[in-house]
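Bug #77: duplicate submission created two jobs. Keeping one. Sequence:
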Amino acid sequence: MLTLILLLAAIVGLLAVMRREAGALPALAVLAVTGLISLLVASAVLGVILLAAAAVIAAAGLPALRGKWLTPRLFAMFKKVSPKVSDTERTALEAGSVAWDGELFTGKPNWQALLDYTDNGLTEEERAFIDHQCSVAAGMCNAWDIAKERADLPQELWDHLKQERYFGMIIPKEYGGLGFSAKAQSLVLQKLSINETLMVTVGVPNSLGPGELLLKYGTDEQKNHYLPRLADGREIPCFGLTGPRAGSDATSLPDTGVVCKQEIDGKEVLGVRLNFEKRWITLAPIATVVGLAFRLFDPEKLLGDEEDRGITLALIPRDTAGMEIGRRHHPIGSPFLNGPIKGKDVFVPMDTIIGGEAMIGQGWRMLVECLSVGRCITLPSGATGTARYAIGWSGGFARIRRQFNVPVAEMEGVQEPLARMTALGYIAQAAVYQTANTIDRGEKPAVPSAILKSQLTEFQRVILGDAMDIHGGKAVTLGPRNYLGIGYSANPVAITVEGANIMTRNLMIFGQGAIRCHPYVLEELAAKDADDIQAFDRAFFGHAGLIFGNAARAFTQGLGIGKQAVPFDGEAQRYAQEVARLSAGFGLCADAAMASLGATLKLREMLSARLGDVLSNLYLASMVLKQWHEGDKVEGEEALLHYSCQLLLGRAEQALDELFDNLPNRLLAGVLRRVVMPRGKRFKRPHDDLARSIAQAVSRDSALREKLLANTWSADDGEQANPLAQYNALLATQERAETLYRTVNKAYAKGELPSDALHPEQRVEEAARAGIISEEDATFMHEREAQVLELLTVDDFEYDAFVIDKAKVLRHHAA
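Kept job's structure:
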């Protein structure tokens, strides 16, 4: 019995030391003490084993001992097996900053560090712009008119965008811009997401493009000339990066510039001769100034000894001789302005290079540094705004659309997708707002930008699919009344651009995060490159301590022992502790995958994607918890908290489960499964009760619906009709209408109304005539049914309305 007690004491003591990452000395003390006691008063065998383990820890864990024999051998081995990091990858890794994403890699996330990103909200100017100017812009949009009739925004909307300086949200006021915060930019784009062409048109110039590049790297002359003109719309920018052979692998671009001299107006000018072919360039057809990425060569060595000067960026006026611009691509579903740019022997002077000669060869670094911020905002905000509108439209439609004498919102088959899309929209709102807030606090989130871009646009895909299912025939029939169908068909654009989701999920999130966010990997690689064995020793054994610590934390917390203290209360506390538990498991699995697969992990994209999925879902859950902790709660929101967290944590566990199923080293996979999930998966699909509660709330005039639809155009004050405002108005009187529906339908079922009163209007009229309802109620219901019918109605057209070449029309019944 004493032997068993001593063994348990040694195990518990080691687990406690490992959880705290206390180092070799405390572990040595635990083993030495329990070993000596066992040797003296209990089991000599156990005593010898424990003392032998203590000797191993001393030899491997004490710096003075390991430095003589172990560290040199490990360092030599590490140099051979560690992956080679190319200059391109290193540039990407060093771009941006590490914040909460780094905490999730530690396995013991410091929640207070996340809460320390305090939210100062919006300025009065920002709030007024969103409330007024954005409502004006949204009110000018009709999806059918923009997509099918003019393939562009209306002229008056273009005038409004330029006059109100939408294109200058990121440009400081001293240059004539709006100087908005990241949060304000995000909320502007969310509101403008009522129309995808409008959102893209405003979003792109404020994301990756000449404006941000000039701000960060431009010369004073370039800033003073271009920034005011970009802010007020005198210049419309585009940025040419991708081409026929350079898409996701942007560093492979074959476009070239050659340093040369050319005579202009009798003077010899030093410049660059460009040859390029770009495609998929947003705003290119109407751009007045083109940002261009190319590979610069200096064969005559006019600038120095180097011939290959690397990727360089330039800003070229539209009317530059030799540049072909103005043709259009036809993006699926949406006619946002997008097209090719070509150039043959285009000569530009050196002062067109962004940042001047000092920034030659720095183009890739410039791009990835800008992308880390822009990718956090534009497409994630568009996806979040789309979710807001889709939730509003779908909840309203499901409540007014009646089948079998009840609103379809009462049918569980509709409630399930309605709840799912609502939860995904809720998660998206929290993630994009809280990440934008970290940007406002000085961070440049690289890995979170990949998480938000890929995850939120995938959410958008699910949300729009669910919205289409709920709307049925209303949404599959295109026309001016269809507010959903064109946006649904355009969704693949968001999936594909700014880093295709396949690439982002499989390569970037974990591939970049494993090195950039890990507490020790970057230090180990730097020590290798510097041939610094002492720095390697500190990093490597710190890394080893982290592995043991995460194993202990994951196992004990998986058993429900030693839950992490978190600064949350109520249900949020439990979910934060589960995030911490899975963070420890994720950290352990990340290290195990890197150690067992080494450089080949780059090629095992499905494994990398699953690790990225764990990180993504933990990040999103953290953002939900922060938003819940800091925000004002409304009735019904707790159900959304439960649904969202259970969904995200369940997805994280599922990704870990699939990782264990597919790790090549089956012994390692089995050990990891038992350490990380000793009690199996904790989270299942959210309960049906939560789905019913959420669906009821968002399909009624509720505080939760109002909160979810904040920062949408929800007033009936625009040039175009606003279906969201119409739904909201109908939901405001829904209870009265439901009572009258029940009264009239009950009377019809009892035979108190004529059997041929089949339409709702007929039954209302007959019920009023029979005195079953009042004339006032009848008038109310007639007016309401007219509004309902208008919202349910779809468009029809002339037989040949969609035929471009009328000569090809087949007249099947010409007579």
